[in-house]
């Protein structure tokens, strides 16, 4: 053992000429079979304290060499170093430029494949030191170790403590280096470029690094350049199979990173649509070749986040709508000489599916503002969206058909132009008179008879269509009926009564009476579908929309519209659902008992099964029939002989119920229902006894609505997911409000 210690001892203590013996000794310990003996013999323990001393560069470099060789692939020696705290003093050697070529490989040898050393190095701020080196002229002194620097950063960035000790601008500086290095005589090859991007992207998984990148001068620009270079480097043709796979994973991570960064409010606060960073996404990425699908995907996701407000959405739509439609058309176009949409570009590759999903997400945000709907509808309602309603070859993206249906609903909502497209002849991809080119362009020849509405109704009856898609399809049909029952695009919804009188409002229907009648004749399943929507449990948003449609029909001067609503409301299932809605208070019993309308000894407890509700016996009670009659009568004018005849033929509408509703709706002056008042609490029975059914409706409206009616958010936020949970009290409040509004139009002036 003395022979082993002697060279080192004399090397440290002797004059400079003896330094050569020390060099010879350190070269010998670089042999692999010396590593374990260095630790077992105590040599490593002897050298570890020496690294703390102020020694000459030559001596210090040899000490580092001994420690590095002893710790290479030897966890026992590494453990001694970590326990001794020697790594902290080794890291201090980075401050000496003359030691960089020694301390870089030594530190890497200590940390690689040994987590405790990596954690300690991260805690000591090694990543900041390494990033400072590659961002400064000091790199020229250790350029040959650049790969070791980046690999060391890869080890450090995965440590738990790293986000708290690393410099917030770490990602931006790495991306800057990657962007500038391609102009430096190929300073980094493809493998090192991939590794550099991976490290920067890991940092960007933490919000503080994202915010720092956004606030930096050109951080986002360098991120865009690095992503673009994954498609534009000159050495891509020489990439190995492994590098191609790694590059694909890096591109996917870039896509996720851009989606996260552009979703932050800080991004939209700083970058306007005309900023170079956003224009780069618009001009370069969105218009890139079909081979650069992930660039297009990132552009769609980013622009979708940017278009989060109506103002931005309208501006983005003006800039990208045509290109977006082209991308979607190409995604669903079949292969040449094929009519099968399952062979479309989107279905053929995972990247194509990801692009389709992102493009649909952007389209959904753009479809919300009213001004965007006609242009998008003109390009998408002919083939693209109808094709996607039922296509199932999307692997890990089952939401694509649901997205397509949701976008369709948004496009027809209050948009007469798109409703006309839905009810008119629609090209189908398998129709013999439709030519679909590989580019996505369509050529419709003749013989079109099918409509998208008919396709929608057919889909709702198919058992293989998921429940959430069926719900959206039904909502589309409801919205179409609503637009048909209202007026032009500039006059949507139900006008206020005082507005009617003040402006002498005149209806201008979207379809002529004959055309509207033909629509319902061609689609006889519409009315049963509306009944189904009203009686479906667990979908309060859908119920509220149908009740609103009935309210619109109640305002209509068309007798056919009134009779159409009557056929829907007088269904026993709808009556039961309406009574459940108004009178069931959630306590397991009906408040009709409190009012004296029903005897308390009857079993009216709601069960958990799908048929829960009013019992058959209770439906036959006279009081209930009268109350149901009161509801129905408020939609129509009792002086009209056709309505009287229809009412008399219905066993649930006794003729003896005296409901004097005055003159026909077209001439009657209405008094709006006042807002709910907390002091109104008298039982319904009192009003049934003292007043006619009209007053009952008003008081029910007052009693069972709430002061703060639920204000639904921007349309598009109420998509029905299979397992979506909702606050039933708020949802019930909204549905109840619409139900009462649908009864309100026939309350005459004399009601106070």
List keywords for this structure.
single chain; 752 residues; mainly alpha; Leucine-rich Repeat Variant; two-stranded antiparallel ribbon; 60% helix; 1% strand; disordered N terminus; disordered C terminus
Describe the structure.
With 752 residues, this protein is mainly alpha-helical. Among the domains are: 1-167, Leucine-rich Repeat Variant (Alpha Horseshoe), CATH 1.25.10; 584-746, no CATH class. It contains 42 helices and 2 strands. The protein has a two-stranded antiparallel sheet. A hairpin with a 5-residue loop joins strand 1 and strand 2. The longest helix is centred in the middle third of the chain and has 23 residues, at 310-332. The radius of gyration is 37 Å and the shape is elongated. The N and C termini lie far apart (110 Å). The model is unreliable at 1-7, 14-19, 429-449, 488-507, 584-733 and 743-752 (pLDDT under 50).
Question: How do the strands and helices of this protein lay out in sequence?
Answer:
Blueprint: H1 2-13, H2 19-28, H3 35-40, H4 43-47, H5 57-71, H6 75-84, H7 86-92, H8 100-111, H9 115-123, H10 126-134, H11 146-157, H12 162-165, H13 170-181, H14 190-203, H15 207-215, H16 219-232, H17 241-262, H18 265-270, H19 276-285, H20 293-306, H21 310-332, H22 345-348, H23 350-366, H24 373-380, H25 384-390, H26 399-412, H27 416-423, E1 434-436, E2 442-444, H28 452-460, H29 467-485, H30 497-503, H31 513-522, H32 526-535, H33 540-555, H34 559-569, H35 572-583, H36 592-595, H37 616-619, H38 622-633, H39 641-649, H40 684-690, H41 693-704, H42 728-743
Helix pairs in contact: 1-2, 2-5, 5-8, 8-11, 10-11, 10-13, 11-14, 13-14, 13-16, 14-17, 16-19, 17-20, 19-20, 20-21, 20-23, 21-23, 21-24, 23-26, 24-26, 25-26, 26-29, 28-29, 29-32, 29-33, 32-33, 32-34, 32-35, 33-42, 38-41, 41-42
């Amino acid at each position: 053992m003395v022979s082993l210690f002697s060279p080192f001892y004399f090397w440290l203590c002797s004059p400079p000429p003896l330094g050569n013996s020390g060099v010879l000794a350190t070269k010998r310990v670089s042999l692999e079979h010396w590593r374990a003996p260095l630790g077992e013999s105590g040599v490593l323990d002897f050298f570890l304290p020496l690294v703390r001393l102020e020694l000459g560069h030559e001596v210090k470099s040899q000490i580092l060499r001994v420690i590095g060789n002893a710790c290479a692939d030897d966890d026992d020696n590494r453990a001694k170093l970590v326990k001794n705290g020697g790594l902290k003093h080794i890291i201090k050697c980075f401050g000496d430029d003359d030691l960089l070529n020694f301390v870089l490989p030594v530190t890497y040898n200590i940390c690689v494949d040994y987590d405790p050393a990596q954690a300690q190095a991260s805690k000591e701020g090694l990543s900041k030191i390494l990033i400072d080196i590659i961002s400064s002229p000091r790199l020229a002194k250790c350029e040959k170790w650049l790969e070791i620097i980046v690999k060391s950063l890869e080890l450090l960035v995965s440590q738990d403590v790293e986000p708290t000790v690393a410099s917030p601008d770490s990602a931006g500086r790495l991306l800057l280096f990657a962007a500038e290095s391609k102009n430096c005589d190929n300073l980094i090859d493809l493998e090192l470029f991939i590794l550099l991007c991976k490290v920067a992207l890991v940092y960007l998984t933490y919000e503080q690094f994202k915010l720092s990148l956004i606030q930096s001068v050109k951080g986002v620009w360098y991120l865009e350049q690095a992503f673009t270079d994954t498609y534009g480097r000159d050495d891509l043709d020489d990439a190995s199979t492994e590098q191609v796979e790694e590059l694909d994973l890096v591109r996917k991570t870039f896509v996720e990173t851009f989606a996260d960064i552009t979703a932050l409010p800080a991004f939209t606060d700083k970058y306007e649509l005309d900023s170079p960073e956003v224009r780069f996404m618009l001009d370069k990425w969105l218009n890139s070749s079909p081979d650069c699908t992930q660039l297009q995907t990132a552009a769609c996701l980013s622009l979708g986040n940017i278009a989060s407000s109506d103002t931005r959405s309208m501006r983005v739509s003006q800039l990208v709508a045509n290109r977006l439609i082209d991308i979607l058309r190409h995604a669903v176009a079949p292969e040449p000489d094929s009519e099968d949409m399952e062979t479309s570009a989107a279905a053929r590759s995972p990247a194509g599916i990801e692009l389709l999903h992102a493009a649909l997400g952007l389209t959904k945000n753009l479809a919300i503002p009213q001004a965007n709907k006609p242009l998008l509808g003109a390009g998408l309602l002919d083939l693209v969206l109808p094709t996607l309603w039922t296509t199932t070859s999307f692997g890990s993206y089952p939401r694509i058909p649901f997205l397509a249906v949701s976008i369709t609903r948004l496009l027809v909502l209050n948009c007469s132009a798109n409703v006309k497209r839905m009810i008119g002849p629609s090209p189908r991809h398998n129709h013999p008179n439709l030519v679909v080119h590989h580019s996505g362009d369509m050529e419709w020849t003749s013989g079109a008879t099918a409509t998208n509405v008919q396709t929608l109704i057919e889909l709702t009856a198919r058992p293989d269509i998921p429940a959430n898609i069926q719900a959206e399809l039904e909502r589309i049909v409801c919205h179409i009926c609503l637009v048909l029952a209202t007026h032009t695009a500039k006059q949507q919804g139900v006008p206020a009564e005082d507005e009617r009188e003040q402006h002498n409002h005149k209806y201008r229907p979207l379809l002529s009476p004959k055309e509207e009648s033909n629509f319902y004749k061609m689609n006889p399943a519409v009315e049963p579908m509306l009944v189904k929507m009203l009686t479906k449990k667990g979908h309060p948003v859908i119920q509220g929309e149908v009740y609103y449609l009935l309210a619109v029909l109640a305002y209509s001067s068309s007798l056919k519209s009134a009779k159409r609503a009557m056929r829907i409301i007088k269904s026993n299932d709808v009556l039961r659902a309406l009574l459940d809605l108004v009178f069931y208070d959630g306590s397991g019993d009906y408040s009709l008992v409190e009012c004296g309308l029903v005897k308390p000894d009857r079993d009216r407890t709601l069960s958990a099964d799908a048929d829960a509700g009013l019992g058959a016996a209770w439906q036959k009670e006279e009081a209930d029939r009268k109350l149901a009659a009161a509801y129905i009568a408020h939609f129509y004018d009792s002086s009209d002989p056709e309505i009287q005849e229809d009412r008399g033929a219905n066993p649930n509408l006794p003729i003896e119920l005296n409901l004097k509703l005055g003159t026909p709706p077209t001439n009657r002056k209405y008094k709006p229902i006042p807002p709910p008042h907390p002091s109104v609490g008298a039982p319904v029975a009192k009003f049934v006894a003292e007043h006619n059914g009209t007053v009952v409706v008003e008081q029910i409206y007052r009693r069972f609505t709430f002061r703060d009616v639920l204000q639904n958010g921007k349309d598009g936020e109420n998509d029905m997911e299979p397992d979506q949970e909702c606050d039933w009290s708020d949802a019930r409040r909204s549905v109840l409000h619409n139900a009462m509004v649908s009864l309100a139009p026939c309350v005459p002036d004399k009601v106070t």
